[in-house]
Amino acid sequence: DRVLADIWWRNHLQREMSIVVALFTGQYKSLLTCGTCGYASARFEPFACLQIPLPEDDKRSVSLCLVHADGGRAPTQYTVRVPKSGTVADVLRALLVLNFR
């Protein structure tokens, strides 16, 4: 497969050579197998964009401004990460963790 992949890649570069192709393209192998006889046919296809799934973030950022009741200190801005389905208690816990680092 390695030799065949190199042949396909060299052929692609002969047709599409540029600095962009050299830096930002690749190739993947697709394999088609006959269900009757088991013969496998491999193709090597160039790609310039490869879509991959990104993990979904289950948290969100919450920004808040803490205003001290005594008025002796200036308000403080905080941003904490909490679960998307979190509660005010989750925000308070995250704020406590932030303050005790």
- Relative helix content: 25-40%
**What does the main sheet amount to?**
2 strands, antiparallel
Oligomeric nature of the chains: single chain
Low-confidence stretches: none
Share of β-strand residues: 25-35%
Please identify the structural class as seen in this structure: alpha+beta
Work out the number of β strands: 4
Number of helices: 3
Give the overall shape, derived from the CA principal axes. elongated
The SSE order reads HHEEEEH
User: Over the alpha carbons, how many angstroms does the gyration radius reach?
Assistant: 27 Å
Task: Determine the mean pLDDT.
Answer: 88
How are the strands of the biggest sheet laid out side by side?
1-2
Q: Distance between the terminal alpha carbons, to the nearest Å?
A: 53 Å
What is the compact description of this entry?
With 101 residues, this protein is α+β, with helices and mostly antiparallel strands. 33% of the residues lie in helices and 32% in strands. It has helices spanning 2-16, 19-24, 88-99, and strands at 26-33, 40-47, 59-66, 76-83.
Question: Can you put this structure into words, describing what you see?
Answer:
The strands form 2 sheets. Strands 1-2 form a two-stranded antiparallel sheet. Strand 1 and strand 2 form a beta hairpin. 33% of the residues lie in helices and 32% in strands. By secondary structure, the chain is of the alpha+beta class. The two termini are 53 Å apart. It is elongated and about 80 Å long.
